[in-house]
Amino acid sequence: MTARPVETVTSTLLSDLPIVPPPVASLLLAGLDLAPRRRVPAWITDPGLIADILAGFVDIPDDLIGDAR
């Protein structure tokens, strides 16, 4: 008795990486803690709160960012 031949099927959906625009990619990487968070609203002056935002413990909605530093 002979073994059946093995066929390998690969999908182009799994082998081709999507193109992600840089602004989206930086936010995605920061959300996954693979890149530092750099956007802190200028109206926040408390050093503890700034550290929490940069660490990812506090998320500020985009409409409240205003002038980010």
Computed CA radius of gyration, to the nearest angstrom = 22 Å
**Which blocks of ≥5 consecutive residues have pLDDT under 50?**
none
Helix content range: 25-40%
* Mean of all residue-level pLDDT scores: 77
- Briefly note the structural class of the backbone: mainly alpha
DSSP strand tally: 0
Q: How would you sum up the major sheet?
A: none
How widely separated are the two ends?
71 Å
Outline type:
elongated
Report the portion of residues in β strands. Answer: under 5%
Helical segment tally?
3
- Order of SSEs: HHH
Would you kindly provide a written description of the structure presented here, covering whatever features stand out?
The protein is mostly helical and 69 residues long. The protein has helices at 12-15, 22-31, 47-55. It is elongated and about 75 Å long. The model has no long low-confidence stretch (mean pLDDT 77).
How does the SSE layout of this entry go?
Layout: H1 12-15, H2 22-31, H3 47-55
Spell out the key features of this protein.
69 residues, mainly alpha
Quick recap:
The chain has 69 residues and is mostly helical. The protein is built from three helices and no strands.
